Amino acid sequence: MSAPSTGSALGGLTVGDVVAERTVHLTRESLVRYAGASGDFNPIHYRDDVAAAVGLPGVLAHGMLTMGLAVGTLESWIGDTGRILEYGVRFTKPVVVDAESGADVTVVAKVGALDEESARIDLTVSFAGATVLVKAQARVRTV
Q1: Is the dihedral of CA 109, 14, 135, 72 positive or negative?
Q2: What is the pLDDT of residues 48-73, one digit of tens each?
Q3: Are 59 and 45 within 8 A, CB to CB?
Q4: Second label for 20, Cα 20 to 30 Å away, from 9, 55, 116, 138?
Q5: Under 8 Å CB-to-CB from 60, ≥6 apart: which residues?
Q6: Strands of 18-26's sheet, edge to edge?
Q7: Measured distance CA(99)–CA(97) in Å, rounded
Q8: How far is 133 from 130, CA to CA, in rounded Å?
Q9: For residue 73, how far is the Cα from the chain centroid?
Q10: Which residues does residue 110 pair with via DSSP β-bridges, in sequence order?
């Protein structure tokens, strides 16, 4: 198999290349806005008392919000999100959003594998020094 041609929109990639990275600061307001957009009004995402009552370490960011932030990191690199052919993650740790300081989620996107028409992009998603999504991978059309 050959790597994508350098004439393609995403050509010249090499396994191991970091293609995008960012840190997103989440606040409780971010969670309320996401709840409104998604329809997920589970109170563990905005009420400390409910989160504590069910044994959580605090108010948690929605898992799908974290997943969306991760893949959204690729947007500036690929330009057209229609190039994303597949995307999947496994949730491993929650993102606890403090009422005062919020939470910073960091995403690093690295080329994990290449074939003739696509690249597997491995996303490392972390919060407070811990990886919160594993097997976070997107397959992106390169030609």
Answers
A1: positive
A2: 999 999 999 999 999 999 999 999 99
A3: yes
A4: 116
A5: 44, 45, 51, 94, 95, 96, 97
A6: 18-26, 103-114, 118-127, 130-141, 84-91
A7: 6
A8: 9
A9: 7
A10: 18, 122
